[in-house]
Amino acid sequence: MNWLTPFHYEYMLTAMWTSTLIGCVCGVLSGFVTLKGWSLMGDALSHAVVPGVTIAYLVGFPFAVGAFASGLIAAGAMAFIKIKTPVREDAVIGIVFTAFFALGLLLISLYPTRVDLKTIIFGNILGIAAGDVVQLVIVSFICLAIILLKWRDLMLFCFDANQARALGMRVGALHVLLLLLLSATAVAALQAVGACLVVAMLVTPGATAYLLTDRFSTMLILGAIFGSVTAFIGAYASYFVDGATGGCIVTLQAVLFLIALVLAPKHGLIATRRARA
């Protein structure tokens, strides 16, 4: 077996470097998702983009446009219902994202020959088109640039929104900004792992880093490293196992989390048991 074989194919090279870029963005953003406790929100937005992607395919628009618009509408719907009703936030998120996901599946079932269900649900990074690569790169770098500029404000908002408000920060604007970043990143990751696994890439690297450090800046760096490295190795390994690229990536991230859960020097299971003893 020649371990360099995947590097001989252009589609594998594209899959590996685009997966690495997506993994880096998701890894950085997962730190904020973990700190804010928005894992369910990430799940909601990753599923809410399905009808937008479907409509974009049907009318011939770039999928990123439809997915981003659908994510924004879903986020707006969740915010509206939360403000106008006494329904708990977790219930609101569950209602909205399942409704959007169901609408997307309905549209796909109505036009089965024009929309590829497998691509939307499970991703298809090995067959990504050149135009989609450009969209993915643009979205990824915009998200990274915004995070680089606003990470301290977003960190304080995620840690304690009341404290951020007391310091004069525009908490509402930061809330919307984080939602926009989540929506855009979900769109970027959709091509790699599909709607079903986007939430894993938006949560697992940050959760793993959370077990290993108490410094948020270090957590962001570790999240980026974990996300990008597992994405690259997962895309590379998918060639040899002949399995879904998204499945390989998320499985590696889950394995890494389990290792940290057991062996983390301060918050791991072994360290916790020793401290109690």
Question: What's the gist of this structure?
Answer:
The chain has one domain (8-271): ABC transporter involved in vitamin B12 uptake, BtuC.
Q: Which spans of ≥5 residues are poorly predicted at pLDDT below 50?
A: none
Approximately how much beta-strand content do the residues carry? under 5%
Annotation, overall tally of beta strands: 0
- The CATH architecture can be given as Orthogonal Bundle
The whole-angstrom Rg is 19 Å
**Succession of helices and strands:** HHHHHHHHHHHHH
CATH level 1 class label: Mainly Alpha
Q: State the domain count.
A: 1
* Major pleated sheet: none
Mean pLDDT: 85
Structural class: mainly alpha
Folded structure, characterized:
The chain has 13 helices and no strands. With 277 residues, the chain is mostly helical. It has one domain: ABC transporter involved in vitamin B12 uptake, BtuC, CATH 1.10.3470. The model has no long low-confidence stretch (mean pLDDT 85).
Summary keywords:
single chain; 277 residues; mainly alpha; ABC transporter involved in vitamin B12 uptake, BtuC; 81% helix
Task: Describe how the helices and strands are arranged.
Elements: H1 10-36, H2 39-48, H3 50-59, H4 63-84, H5 89-110, H6 117-122, H7 130-159, H8 161-166, H9 171-193, H10 198-212, H11 216-241, H12 245-263, H13 269-276
